[in-house]
Fold these 2 entries.
Entry 1:
Amino acid sequence: MLTQLRDIVDHVAKAESLDDALALLVKNTRHSMHTECCSVYLMSNDNLRLELMATEGLKAKPKTVSLGIDEGLVGLVARSCEPLNLANASVHPSYKYIPSIAEYKFNSFLATPIIYRRQNLGVLVVQQKEKRQFTEVEESFLVTLSAQLAVILAHAKAHESWSTQLQPQSIEQKQFKGISASNGVAIAPLWFDDAQPRIESILPSSCLDTEQEQDRLGTAVELALKDFRRAKKRFEQELNTETLAIFDLFTHLLNDPMLKGDLKKQINQGDSAEWALRQVIESYAGRFEKMSDSYLSERANDVRELGQRLLYFLNYEGKLELDLAHPVILVTTQLTASMLASVPQDKLKAVISLEGAANSHAAILSRALGIPAIMGVEFNPTHYHQNLAIVDGYSGALYIKPTEALIQEYTELQNEELALSELITQDLDKPTFTRDEHQMKIYLNAGLSADTSIAVNQGVDGVGLYRTEIPFLLQQRFPSEEEQYLQYKTILETYPKKPVIMRTLDIGGDKPLPYLPIEEENPFLGWRGIRFTLDHPDIFLLQLKAMVRANIGNGNLSIMLPMISGLPELKQARKLINQAYEEVLGESEGDFSQPRIGMMIEVPSMLYLLPRVVGLVDFISVGTNDLTQYLLAVDRNNARVSHVYESYHPAVLLALKQIIDTANQYKLPVSVCGELAGDPIGCLLLLGLGYQSLSMNTSNVAKVKYIIRQVSQQEVEQLVATLLHHDDAEQILTDMIGFFEEKDLSGFIRAGR
Ligand code: PEP
Ligand code: MG
């Protein structure tokens, strides 16, 4: 069975056109299932009709018959999204006799819907003269076949690799969907840049003169270093240092003796510079890729980007920038930060990446540059090079050859956007009060870069979350106490007199260190965060001492513990913090102060134990990213279940309410540092629940401050009180959209067009 199934799917996937593919499908399926008839129907674009696309056994010619979605047994299968297995089809109440098909001779009928990600693409049917129920094995064969066929059909449709009558190639407007990576809208011609050689297409090759090859590589490294310095300088005026850190990361990697040594070794073995580069880069990227934390695994792309850039300079002939006459929407296979840097800013309206996710450095950079970006768009760019297009960075939509009406609509949106961005940067450095004078403190999330310094951001009250794991991941070994001390000191000094909350190492099963691999079945439920550091007091104490030392003379340090799931962990961690403090006190001189100690609320167990942490911590901060993951039992990195990961889920809101109520009752300072805090809707939900302190990424600060200033705490509180009674996230979202419209704030939530 399995071999037959694989054979059918292989044949279908290799067909040159959709018609050929479907003809092969019905022929092979009929043969494999020993039936007398097999047919396939595909859904029309408006989802109202099913067209007979191929048949072996029916009288009708393909594409001459179509059924309404409410007609016959085929319509019933499409509507019900369920297989139908009948011994005698003609007695079923939904049976409809269609003369042109002449199926009266067939009695038994088995059909399955062809469904891809909840979307019904069509129906696959087998029929037989003999009055018999198809067996369970036959039924499951057809269901499995349909599921595999659905993937091929959906992919072919997205890439337009097969033309069909249902989706005619025409001059009509085309629409594709991707992941929104940077908000904003743009209207311009598409520019598909695929001219550079790709590192993954380098084939094994050797060299005769290793010295010459070493020289070529040396020159390429020098040129690349110069280029990164140039790019950094160019962006310095516009970007914060956090984002610019990508260029520092590249420089850091290029100066890394280990990387250089590995490249040299490879060339000395007789490989060409290009082939040596590919092998070394792939091995480095592989180490990052193995990490299941999305942010860290995406660093593999940074390493590849570095390789790509070096490859470019190995073949460099003196031309650095794309020569564009007009502003364009840049389309790339894999968007990279250097690619963004190589296009003059006045020529870049938006970017589209066929691959990649919203957390890559390139996505972060495009957000910081204010360039709309969508990632993971499935379409064939070679068909549309230089065609006019619209990018909607809010919803992730791409419209090619847009209609006049759509251009008009988006031009108006662009004008509104311009006015909005001027508006939100006003009074950025002032504190944030609601209309009824409730203050919301705004803090920064930092640390997701290799840079030792972080952005001096206008208008923030301090750092609400400094993630310390990146330096641990970028090295070949644990960073020394001195290395950590210097880094933490720079950060504390960047925010004099403002609190800086440093989180202790949140590493483990999901973020394995390259030099300490951890193999686990269930990494998110495994050895991570405080579980790892308590098992390694050596590493933990080193970090704590570095933090305490860095605080001498600064006095603005708070230490936060991640992934606490019970009180013993908290008590043990506190003990180690005290030990570190006492040790530093005995060893050093200066202006000492005890750091405040806090914990993240990420594991649902702590909701029940919250009253008991009073006295053990000075503050708490809610990590909604993980709290949502654990509360809803949904992997935060798994695209297949991303629709289940609902930030506005009623259970998430109820948990957040319980946390704030308990914290208020016990006068425990509380903040939120998950992504919800920097989300336009999320920040109001949190305000309405009573939170007075939010921590977010740089790009959200101005927006959130502006939104909060437009509302009164009282009205939002009333609204949120009603939302807590809703049964699903959809209803909550709908009401919030209504509120944003009422307040003239819909410009901030244009998603979902
Ligand atoms: C969180 O879980 O919400 C959080 C802020 O931590 P991280 O995203 O680093 O896991
Ligand atoms: Mg977390």
Entry 2:
Amino acid sequence: MNMKKIVVLVSGGGTNLQALLDAQARGEIIGGEITAVVSSTPGAFALERAAKAGVEGHVINRKAYESREAFTDALLQTLEELHADLIVLAGFLYILSPAFVDRYENRIINIHPALIPSFCGDGYYGLKVHEKVLEYGVKLTGATVHFVSAEADAGPIILQKAVPVEEGDTPEILQRRVMEQAEWKLLPEAVSLFCQDRLSVEGRIVHIAEK
Ligand code: GRF
């Protein structure tokens, strides 16, 4: 089996990228290799994490482009040059254009810090997700890894994990718990399953093949 080239798109701190790099160092990303990190923000801390792990970093600065289309075109060109087999959105802040999503159908994976279809879609990003979870009063939240479709947070679900909401939680405390207990485990696991060709998509359903 050819090693799949994984390109991770980031915009910020990159703790999910770190989880992927650490999993790779432990030999847990089977059949794939993180070959590049592309940031939409110059100076993102995620780029330092990449450099430290010896992974090349690129910047496609969203603010340098007038439209989403122009930004997306530049991104697409870079991904073609990198021969990406799998694109992982790890705290990437921008919604990709339908043309982009079509080009990489079922080859783009995103992590969302809630149990989709709850607390997702337009406006649900970062700490806002956890604020809304606390406001609503649900007792369980979690994280979801899914394939990206043209609509935000609506693509086929690969893995989910529940995390309890506890008395006295602040959005920051809950965010941290969701990351530690769910996000940092689920994302490397989903990436490894993809790289082993164990995921198949039938409509909305993702089947996971046994080893
Ligand atoms: C995470 O909560 C992730 O689920 C969401 O954005 C956040 C990124 O954090 N999509 P980091 O940059 O990986 O630390």
